[in-house]
Amino acid sequence: MSTSEQGWVQIVGIGPGDEALVTPQVQAALAEATDAVGYIPYVERVAANPNLTLHPSDNRVEIDRSRHALEMASEGKRVVVVSSGDPGVFAMAAAVFEAVEHGEAAWRDLDIRVLPGITAMLAASAACGAPLGHDFCAINLSDNLKPWELIDKRLRLAAEADFAMAFYNPRSKSRPEGFEKALKTLKDACGDNRPMIFARNVSRPDQTIKIVPLQDTTPDMADMRTVVLLGSSQTRIITRDGAPIVYTPRSVAG
Ligand SMILES: C[S@@+](CC[C@H](N)C(=O)[O-])C[C@H]1O[C@@H](n2cnc3c(N)ncnc32)[C@H](O)[C@@H]1O
């Protein structure tokens, strides 16, 4: 990507919530920016700054928001596009590049950078041990942008391959039945009682971590503020006084 003294776009991840988990690189971008665009609750997390104009927008307008950011950068503004967690994980980085690919030719010459952040599944994994300590996959359970049949297929194949799994966007008011179907598929495909971890508001003052045997899980255990982790068949629980530790060993016997 080219560099320029003119406008730029930096697509930044502000982590799962705790200010201590915002990288110094992202803090520097926020300090230099003239404009910030993003989903309302994420833009609200950006500290007030008299030199920074905030452009909060509603959910599901990612491409419009991306085009707005690219237009402002073309006019010489220094624009941050704000995502929670990491901007490359079910977030704005891919949306901005989709807008670049299908947008004005001049946008390809803009200085566009992606600044990583700590994604929810890694913060959740750290909060309970190391359940993603061996091979794992991440699946977005929302069927807003893909058919449910594809989600179901990926769940079955991930279980067959014995991946640990991380599930984003597990359950919302507009999609109450999806997580119920996902649990049914997983209980059937895994067939055992490996631990499922419901990590809600990770790294925030009201963080909760619940570890539940897969066959005992119920759909109401997750909402849109929850990232759900599922161990592989190898995942272990170390009991002790206080919270147990969940981990997946680094090796699998041949
Ligand atoms: C649109 S995705 C954005 C993911 C984000 N880019 C990331 O890397 O974490 C939103 C989903 O991320 C998960 N999530 C984000 N922040 C979270 C947090 N602090 N605690 C638990 N889950 C979180 C939830 O599953 C939520 O429904």
Features:
13 strands; 254 residues; alpha/beta
Short description:
The protein has seven helices and 13 strands.
What do you see in this structure?
It is a single chain. The chain is an alpha/beta fold. The protein is built from seven helices and 13 strands. α2 links the parallel β2 and β3. α3 packs across α4 and α6 packs parallel to α7. The longest helix has 13 residues. The structure holds S-adenosylmethionine (SAM).
The rough form would be described as elongated
What is the overall pLDDT average?
A: 96
Through-space gap between termini: 44 Å
Ligand set = S-adenosylmethionine
| Poorly predicted tracts of residues | none
Task: Tell me roughly what share of residues is in helical segments.
Answer: 25-40%
Largest sheet report: 5 strands, parallel
Q: Percent of residues in beta strands?
A: 15-25%
Give the class from helix and strand content and strand pairing. Answer: alpha/beta
Number of strands: 13
Strand arrangement within the widest β-sheet reads: 3-2-4-1-5
Radius of gyration: 20 Å
Order of helices and strands: EHEHEHEHEHEEHEHEEEEE
Number of discrete helical segments: 7
How is this fold's topology laid out?
Layout lengths: L7 E6 L10 H9 L2 E5 H4 L9 E5 L4 H13 L3 E6 L8 H11 L8 E5 L4 H9 E2 L5 E5 L7 H13 L3 E5 L9 H13 L4 E6 L7 E6 L12 E5 L5 E3 L6 E3 L7
Parallel strand pairs: 1-4, 1-5, 2-3, 2-4, 6-13, 7-8
Antiparallel strand pairs: 8-11, 9-10, 9-11, 12-13
The protein binds S-adenosylmethionine (SAM).
